[in-house]
Design a protein that fits this description.
InterPro entries: PrsW. With 343 residues, the protein is mainly α. 67% of the residues lie in helices and 5% in strands. It has helices at residues 16-24, 45-50, 64-71, 73-76, 79-83, 91-106, 114-135, 143-164, 181-207, 214-238, 246-257, 259-280, 285-307, 311-330, 332-340; strands spanning 2-6, 9-14, 33-36, 42-44. It has a four-stranded antiparallel beta sheet with strand order 2-1-3-4. A hairpin with a 5-residue loop joins strand 3 (33-36) and strand 4 (42-44).
């Protein structure tokens, strides 16, 4: 005798022949859970029946055409749902279309040269943006501000790195031998790039008509970081990477579209966290602004410093950056409680 379990509820007991008949009629599935009523031994229906030498076969409900007819035309082609566009109310459809078809649409466009690299980078940036929106949802996150933050960051990147970057004195130290090069990578590369990514966040916070939650600022920081990663990714793909062999260039290009922009996003997410706290607790804004810049710049500088010396250390720094952001988010309530308390 067998006891059948479905959705944590027991049915039976039934003798093995009855269970086999249920399987043949489609009322039970071979991978439903079952146990022997006498011994307590458990397994799937299939396993328990095989122990008794029973091999049930599910009966077909008529021919293929009969089965298709029973499924029904409206379920095979739900024309009413498609004609009335009710499917477009499901945001999952929009996400699926963007992720799955955008690059195919791009292939139809008459573009070439540098624009190809930029458009493909935008495609991957969109995927990251959808992921971040799912990961850090708040009522303050919206598409318009996301797009505004992304392209404002890109405008700032082109301005600062096209006009001011070569004037940075500390960049001279990046050419020095390790560990002196750390100075240049932190004070030159780190501070410059992280400040560039912070500017749109500062503008966003200043223009906001309500206090921005730290989690909201983290999200927009991630978007600004991805925007910077697109600029840098295109730059490397069209200059340095093209001189590598095919296999190496392929790997580097994929990294510049995915992993490396993600690291930039994490650093700017950290900046967004402290800027968000500074907006809520302005009495401590100088310290929080300082942390918003120096923490990402230091992580960035050390990452770049070790990239050419011991890349495994850079990977550890990247992982530590992710863990640090998550730790900040986890302790957000405790920090807010401390900042509410006046000394």
């Amino acid at each position: 005798m067998l006891i059948i379990t479905r959705n944590s509820r027991d049915y039976g007991p039934y003798d093995e022949a009855t269970v086999a008949a249920f399987v043949e009629d489609g009322r039970l599935l071979l991978n439903d859970r079952a146990r022997d009523a006498a011994t307590g031994e458990s397994g799937t229906v299939k396993e328990m029946l095989l122990r008794k030498g029973i091999r049930p076969s599910v009966k077909n409900n008529g021919s293929l055409m009969r089965q298709l007819s029973h499924v029904g035309r409206d379920f095979i082609f739900p024309h009413e749902d498609m004609e009335h566009h009710s499917l477009f109310e499901d945001k999952r459809l929009l996400v699926l279309a963007i992720v799955g078809l955008s690059l195919s649409v791009i292939m139809l466009l008459p573009i070439g040269g540098l624009l190809v690299f930029y458009v493909v980078s935008l495609y991957f940036a969109t995927i990251w943006g959808l992921f971040f929106a799912w990961l850090f949802p708040t009522r303050q996150v919206n598409t318009k501000t996301t797009v505004w933050t992304f392209f404002l960051t890109q405008a700032g990147v082109f301005l600062i790195f096209g006009v001011l970057h070569n004037l940075n004195f500390f960049n001279l130290f990046t050419e020095a031998s390790f560990p002196v090069s750390i100075i240049g990578y932190i004070l030159g590369v780190g501070l410059t790039e992280e400040f560039t990514k912070m500017v749109p966040l500062i503008i966003l916070q200043h223009r906001s008509r309500e206090p921005m939650l730290p989690q909201t600022m983290v999200y927009y920081g991630l978007i600004a970081g991805i925007a910077f990663g697109v600029f840098e990714g295109v730059q490397y793909q069209t200059t340095i990477n093209i001189h590598a062999d095919y296999t190496t260039a392929f790997l580097l290009n994929i990294a510049r579209l995915t992993s490396l922009p993600f690291i930039h996003a994490i650093w700017c997410g950290i900046a967004g966290y402290f800027l968000g706290m500074a907006g809520l607790y302005p009495r401590y804004r100088h310290a929080l602004w300082f942390l918003a810049l120096i923490v990402p710049a230091t992580l960035h500088g050390f990452y770049d410093s070790f990239a050419g010396v011991a890349y495994i250390v850079s990977l550890f720094i990247a992982l530590s950056s992710v863990l640090l952001l998550m730790a900040y988010m986890r302790r957000s309530g405790q920090l807010r409680e401390r900042l509410r308390t006046n000394e």
